[in-house]
Amino acid sequence: MAAPTPLRLLIRWLAPTLAVGLLLLPGCFTNKGHQGERLYGQHCASCHGEQGEGLGQLIPPLAKSDYLAQHAGSLACIVRQGLRGPIVVNGVSYNQVMLGVQDTATHRHLSPAQITNLLNFLESHWGNHPGPAGPRTIAGTETELAACGER
Amino acid sequence: MLPSIFRLSALPLAALLLSLASCGGPSADQPTTLPILGERDVRENPKGGPADTIYATVPAFRLHDQNGHLVTNQSLTGQVYITDFFFATCPGICPKMQGELLKVYKQYGQNPGLTFMSHTIDPEHDSLPVLRDYARRLGVRNDNHWRFVTASKDSIFGLAKAYFTAAMPDKAAPGGFAHNGTFALVDDQGHVRGLYDSLNPKEVARLQTELPVLLAEVKQRRGGK
């Protein structure tokens, strides 16, 4: 067998290093990529359904919801403050009190970053679409919240 | 020589076939009778002979449903019923719980021997029109099979206890009431025969398999009527 060339030596050194590096890499990422989905499961799914399907004429659907598209600019405030009074979603009228979303354990409301991730999840699933400006930003959510006296 | 070997090997084979056959029979998770739940009392028989076992029974109740009809133990004579506790403005577990009960209702709702009973734990807010509107919005037909009932708070909370359901006013809970999502299955004699956590899909599936067992038992007891 021929003596190992410098290139071969390099590969032999590089391969395990790379492998170890790749194995360690996931640890560098937080799970924030799925934060919106997790928040939905924790705070929204018990009323609006696992797939955003809603419940009869009691709880409006979030899937394929014309209300989300028509009220894109006030969704952050709805998440924070809840909603009361009659609304029409996909041609069906609903009249149930929705409470502002809070962490049930700590009673703290969702941060602008959490609301951003939650709404981005909703607007990219179940037949919903992000607004013309693309996915939401935390700055955008903060502006929306300021408009209803929240921060 | 050959036959004896054959005989030897036939035995385990037969055992294997027997054990295989049991797979097809009534499975372990399909009970033939449901237990009677709750405390029981054993009383001596004054005439001698074996003592009587007195099983826990649901107390007497007087409720009104969404149509203003009176619901009592007597008016439910011969009926199997499923109970839960909710309130119309409940932002917590109720939608999930009622959504699960709706699945059971869609499957068994038209059975003449079965009644669904949702008790409001907020009778001050949940007037008859509110209950009627709630039933309609949930998608329940006005057919007396699913009754949304109200009474004084005391009787409702007392009944919740009898059905092994936790329900009490709690300012810290979403909507002002703390309760769990228990479904209780009650037989024609007022005995609780099954308890199911509505928030656990496996438990709801268990209700769906156990319900026909109880319906059959009651039908037989009442002479197939």
Secondary-structure topology with pairs:
The complex is a heterodimer of chains A (151) and B (225).
Chain A: H1 6-24, H2 35-43, H3 45-48, H4 66-70, H5 75-81, E1 82-83, E2 87-89, E3 92-94, E4 98-99, H6 112-122, H7 138-147
Helix pairs in contact in A: 2-6, 5-6, 5-7, 6-7
Chain B: H1 2-24, E1 40-43, E2 52-55, E3 62-64, E4 70-72, E5 80-86, H2 94-108, E6 114-120, H3 128-138, E7 146-149, H4 153-162, E8 167-169, E9 177-179, E10 182-186, E11 192-197, H5 201-221
Parallel strand pairs in B: 5-6, 6-7
Antiparallel strand pairs in B: 1-2, 3-4, 5-10, 8-9, 10-11
Task: State the end-to-end distance of chain A.
Answer: 70 Å
At the fourth level of CATH, the homologous superfamily of chain A is Cytochrome c-like domain
Task: Enumerate the strands of the largest sheet of chain A in spatial order, edge to edge or round the barrel.
Answer: 1-4
Main beta sheet of chain B: 5 strands, mixed
CATH first level of chain A: which class? Mainly Alpha
In terms of DSSP E residues, the strand content of chain A is: 5-15%
The secondary-structure element order of chain B is HEEEEEHEHEHEEEEH
How many domains would you count in the coordinates of chain B?
Answer: 1
Question: What portion of residues of chain B is helical?
Answer: 25-40%
Please name the CATH topology of chain B: Glutaredoxin
Q: Using only CA atoms, what is the Rg of chain B?
A: 23 Å
CATH architecture title of chain B: 3-Layer(aba) Sandwich
**What's the domain count of chain A?**
1
Q: Separation of termini of chain B?
A: 63 Å
Give the oligomeric state of the chains in this entry, treating copies of one chain as homo and distinct chains as hetero. Answer: heterodimer
Shape of chain A: elongated
List the strand order in the largest sheet of chain B: 7-6-5-10-11
Radius of gyration of chain A from CA coordinates? 23 Å
